[in-house]
From TrEMBL:
<dbReference type="Pfam" id="PF13174">
    <property type="entry name" value="TPR_6"/>
</dbReference>
<keyword id="KW-0677">Repeat</keyword>
<keyword id="KW-0802">TPR repeat</keyword>
<dbReference type="InterPro" id="IPR050498">
    <property type="entry name" value="Ycf3"/>
</dbReference>
<dbReference type="InterPro" id="IPR019734">
    <property type="entry name" value="TPR_rpt"/>
</dbReference>
<dbReference type="Pfam" id="PF13432">
    <property type="entry name" value="TPR_16"/>
</dbReference>
<feature type="repeat" description="TPR">
    <location>
        <begin position="266"/>
        <end position="299"/>
    </location>
</feature>
<dbReference type="InterPro" id="IPR011990">
    <property type="entry name" value="TPR-like_helical_dom_sf"/>
</dbReference>
<protein>
    <submittedName>
        <fullName>Tetratricopeptide repeat protein</fullName>
    </submittedName>
</protein>
<keyword id="KW-0732">Signal</keyword>
<feature type="signal peptide">
    <location>
        <begin position="1"/>
        <end position="25"/>
    </location>
</feature>
<feature type="repeat" description="TPR">
    <location>
        <begin position="134"/>
        <end position="167"/>
    </location>
</feature>
Length: 348
């Protein structure tokens, strides 16, 4: 087996289970602390914990892995690539699940760093060892789209779908990837095929497929039925379907209804804020984005933070917007939209 293939293996969650951590040898107290800090988005604190783990001679591979994940959080993708490569090179030669995990992270770091060709090589190696990896087919297809290789991308997407035809979340991801690179109609063909061939499609799945097909009336009719079963995603898509028709008042009421009955949710607050922006009620929009930011550990902190800045701009509080934008770019320095926004604010 070649050196590249020895390194390869499976993307997972941000933190390995404690049992996996302790199973890798050495005490991992500081590594565990570092990964917990990663979960709270305190990446600098995490790096400090990993430095302490190194001083205490904890597991070197997991320290490098943790540093790689923290570096990605800090958008230091070159550094992340180095850490994940280091972690993989510390392998004892036996391919384990943690190796797959780190290879997926390595490929993600390459893509974030504008190196889709390198990412594709990683996915090639993963599939060379584990051809049943459905995620790798989808992710390799996405990298191939970045490289302008539509035919290879479509072949990989077809393979991913054939291996899990009822995974409608993945199908929608494929549609979005194709749409991003100018192949929206091809993506919609995948979606239409589900409507034409699926024998038992529930209201939620049919509703969101209609949404992406642009048939908003059928979408909200199905999603009105689906929301009675609970799930936050049904409310999200229902509100989006009404917003897509220009009915921001009803969309806002859908989101507000969810919040009053089910409690805080970052995505709901973000969509509510976007509706309020569209309605030109900028103060309510600001309040919605800020409420979303108050939810600890939410995965939309970057989006909510940027939208909060936009709301301040609409309120013509350019000084506050500029202060927040400077802080935002400290955390997300590669956000091109934010960089353009900073240039705009410098003229106010």
């Amino acid at each position: 087996m070649g050196k590249t293939h020895k390194k390869i293996v499976m993307a997972g969650v941000c933190c390995l289970m404690i049992s996996m951590l302790t199973g890798c040898g050495n005490d991992t107290t500081k590594i565990t602390e570092g990964m917990q800090l990663v979960e709270t988005l305190d990446y600098q604190g995490a790096l400090t914990a990993f430095d302490e783990a190194e001083a205490q001679k904890e597991n070197r591979r997991l320290i490098a892995r943790g540093r790689g994940i923290a570096s990605m959080g800090l958008t230091e993708y070159d550094q992340a690539v180095q850490y994940f490569t280091e972690a993989l090179e510390l392998s004892d030669g036996w391919v384990q699940n943690v190796d797959y995990d780190m290879n997926y992270y390595l490929a993600a770091a390459y893509r974030k760093n504008g190196q889709p060709a390198e990412a594709k090589k990683v996915y090639d190696a993963i599939l060379g060892l584990k051809p049943e990896e459905k995620d790798a087919y989808f992710l390799r297809g996405s990298a191939e789209l970045e490289l302008g290789d539509y035919e290879s991308a479509k072949a990989d997407f077809d393979q991913a779908i054939s291996m899990d035809p009822k995974n409608y979340d993945r199908l929608i991801e494929i549609y979005e990837a194709l749409a991003d690179y100018g192949y929206r109609e091809v993506g919609q063909e995948y979606l239409q095929n589900v409507l034409d061939t699926a024998k038992q499609l529930d209201a939620y799945d049919s509703g969101r497929i209609y949404y992406y097909l642009g048939d908003y009336q059928k979408a909200y009719l199905a999603l009105e039925e689906a929301k009675g079963k609970g799930g936050v995603d049904s409310y999200l898509y229902l509100g989006k379907a009404y917003a897509a028709t220009g009915d921001y008042n009803y969309a806002s009421s859908v989101y507000s209804n969810y919040l009053s009955k089910q409690g805080p949710d970052a995505e709901i607050y973000n969509q509510l804020g976007l509706c309020e922006l569209a309605k030109k009620d900028y103060q309510k929009a600001l309040e919605a984005f800020q409420a979303g930011k108050q939810i600890e550990g939410n995965s939309l902190m970057q989006t909510l933070s940027f939208n909060e800045i936009v709301a301040y701009e609409y309120l013509q509080d350019y000084q506050k917007a500029a202060v927040l934008l400077n802080a935002y770019l400290q955390n997300y320095p590669d956000d091109q939209a934010a960089i353009r926004e900073q240039q705009f604010l410098s003229t106010r």
